[in-house]
Every structure is written in structure tokens, then in C-alpha cells.
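quick one: 6-O-phosphoryl inosine monophosphate bound model?
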Amino acid sequence: MYVDVLLGLQWGDEGKGKIVDYLADKYNIVARFQGGPNAGHTLKINGERFVLHTIPSGIFHEGVCNVVGNGVVIDPVTFQKETSKLEALNIDVRERMVISLRAHLILPTHKLLDAASESRKGQAKIGSTLRGIGPTYMDHTGRNGLRVGDILEPDFKQRYQALKEKHEELLGFYNYKDYDLAELEGPWFEGIENLRRLKLINTEYFLNDALAKGQTILAEGAQGSMLDINFGTYPFVTSSNTLTASASIGLGISPTRIRKVYGISKAYCTRVGSGPFPTELDNDMGELLRQKGSEFGATTGRPRRCGWIDLPALKYAAMLSGLTDLIITKIDVMNDFEEIQACTDYEIDGQKTQDLPYDLGRKDLKPVFRTFPGWQKDIGDIHNFDELPAPITNYVAFLEDYLKVPITIVSTGPGREEFILKEQVSTL
Ligand code: GDP
Ligand code: IMO
Ligand code: MG
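yep, here:
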């Protein structure tokens, strides 16, 4: 029937996993369309924490089909770890998931190339998760890559060998020698065997047939809008498109099938890795957000940089993706704060603007903040929007007015049940 898209609006880690897990059983299918194991999507179910990297966040729901789309890049090793963990919980991954034959494979040498490229950049490094994402997408667009479908071909080993040798030459160019490829190849080929036993199909037909039968799809974004390869803070971005348009290409569904676009933002802002972050708080307040929000990477464990919410950046993301619904997460992290701040404008060259400049890192850009009163109240037990303290409802009204997008959900904790639906848009 239709496809709804769910995206992160910031620099990732907005709480996509948690919200997709909540929304999943309202759809027939949950589908990942870009990124790979650089993502870490956390779900907290009955007090237990699960982190998914490549497998869609609908996997915990019986009766929901999970699709790993053609736009995703798969590391067979991480993938095997994920499938084994889920199978140990008696989740029939083979039954609940299908994988695109067109998804590209991350080779061990892609990861080495990622590391070699980052170390060559020195101070200018991207701060990549080093999961091989950039080199794999480079081989994709360079028309050199290996795809899931290739593992079913009789000459797969030769194709692998040819690409590996190319990569070894490149590693030689970087003078990167600190690796033992044989050690990495063992688990990789085991991971390939694991993939072979799963359902590998032409997911574009599967998804379009499902739509024709009246089924619904939730497309689960990874990373965030400001990490988009075209519109993010280039070059400090990831190597895929992270916006609504990417769901179409990454799944093989027409843009005309897209209905709602859910955008997620934290009530503040975080970033892992290098690159501009105008509202960053490199001080005690930033540390407080990090501690209260447990802001440590779900994939790498790195401390996340923390700062106030950046509304011009959110407005940009809302525009690029055509948001229909906004979801605010982690408002509870600021429960104790006397006041909170939001960046409403940038001052560039003495002029106020809400437009993002070409280079968000330009030295003369200063964020302009507006201060809002805090609520200093635990909101964990509140389940009705109208019962929230006035400073929160006023802040939400301000965000809706600024961004011109209605807020659908306010998330109040990491747990599956910890959220509030806003009354007028509660029919999801
Ligand atoms: P994702 O990559 O967008 O799925 O987000 P991550 O899982 O990397 O990071 C979000 C973190 O915040 C996870 O640890 C979640 O369990 C947690 N989380 C999600 N929503 C909320 C919320 O509303 N409040 C709090 N306190 N934590 C949340
Ligand atoms: P989820 O889906 C936060 C960041 C990295 C680095 C840059 C490039 O969990 O929100 P890459 O590994 O893609 O070469 O890294 O992008 N990054 C993320 N930051 N959440 C993510 O995913 C991220 N995926 C990549 O930290 O700065
Ligand atoms: Mg994450």
C-alpha cells in the first residue's frame, strides 16, 4: 500500500532503533536501505539491551518481515555475530528476514583500507567507525564491488581473490602493512557460509509485490541527515545518502509510494567522530549530557560529543527529507536542568541567518541561543502528553512552530514503553 520512512535528523544515534522497534508491528515489513555495520541501533526490551548493526530493528516482532535492502553494505562477520545472538534468543532470523542479492559485501580488505586511509589523513581524519563503509561504497560506485548474489556463483572465490589483490596493491600504496589477512579471512568465509543459508532474494520484487498486495513498509534509516554524503558536513560524513530519497534507491521502490516521513531528533545533540558541530558544549554541561544520556557509541564505545539542539540544522534536514512527523527523544535526560538552550540562528559575518552555510565549520559562524526554563521533574511515569510539565509542552510547541512539522512522539526513556504519543496525531 505505502512506504513510511524513518530517519535520523542529526549526526546519528537519535534513537532510531528504539522507535522502529515500537512502530514495527504497525507494518508488515521493516526495511534497511543504506549504511551498514557503522550503525548501532539500540533496543531495550523488558530491561534488556540489544544493539543491531545491519539487521532491521523490526526483528524482535513475530509476523514482521525484515528486509536488508540493496542499498545496504554487509560485513559477513558482523552479520553472523548478529544472527547468532538473535538465534540464541530463539528468534528465527531465517524466517523473519530476507536479504537483497544486490547488497554489497564488505571485504576484510575494505576494513584495512578504511584504517589505512584514516591513518594517512592524520589530524584530518573523518573519525570513521572503521567498518569498511567508505571503501565498500567506493567499490560500488567504481563498479568493482562484490554483491551478495555473487556468493552463489561458481567463480565467487576467483572474484574475491581478484578484488582482494587490487586492495592489497592499494594497501601497498598506503604503505599499510600491519595486518594478517589470513586471520581475517577465516571468519569472513564462515560469514559467507552463514549468508548462504539465509533467504537471498531480489528484494525489489518482494517489496513491490508486497505493496501491490496492500501491505505496508517502514523504511529504517541509519546514520543521520547531517552525515549524508551530499548534504552533510562533507567530508566529515558517511558514504551513503541518509535522506528520504535514499529509501527509494536503496530498496527499489518508487518515490511515489512514500507516504509519511518520520524524522527523529534528540532534545539536544550529539556527534561521534570529527567534523563541525556549532552547538557543541566542550565543558561541564557537555559532560553532564554525556553522563545523563549515556552518550557512548553503540558501535565503537567512543564518547559522543554533546551539545544543545541545533534548529537551523534540523530545519535543513526537515526540508531535505520532506518531514511529515517529528519525533523527539531523550527529553528525560534534561529532567534536572534548571534551564535548557536551543540554537535558533547562526550569526555569520555579523548577520543572523537560519540557513546552513556551505561550510558549517567556518570560523566566523556563531550559534545564537534561546534559553528555555527547565522542568526539574521526573517524567518517567507520565503517559499523557497533557500531563507533561508546562515547560516541556511549551518547548514542544516552539519546536513545532519553528520547524513547521507536528511532533508525533516524545520519547522519555530507553525502554520500549517509555514514550508519549501526542494526542492529535496518535493514529499511527
Ligand atoms: P540509533 O542509532 O538512532 O538507533 O540510536 P543509538 O541506539 O545509537 O543511541 C540512542 C541511545 O539512547 C540508546 O542507548 C537508546 O537506548 C537510548 N534512548 C533512546 N531513546 C531514549 C530516550 O527517550 N531517553 C533516554 N534516556 N534514552 C533513550
Ligand atoms: P547510527 O545508525 C553516529 C559517523 C562516524 C564518523 C562518520 C563516518 O547508529 O545512527 P563511517 O564509519 O561511516 O565511515 O563513519 O560517520 N557515523 C555515525 N555516527 N551514528 C551512526 O549510525 C554512524 N555511522 C557513522 O562516527 O564520524
Ligand atoms: Mg546508533
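The mean pLDDT is 96.
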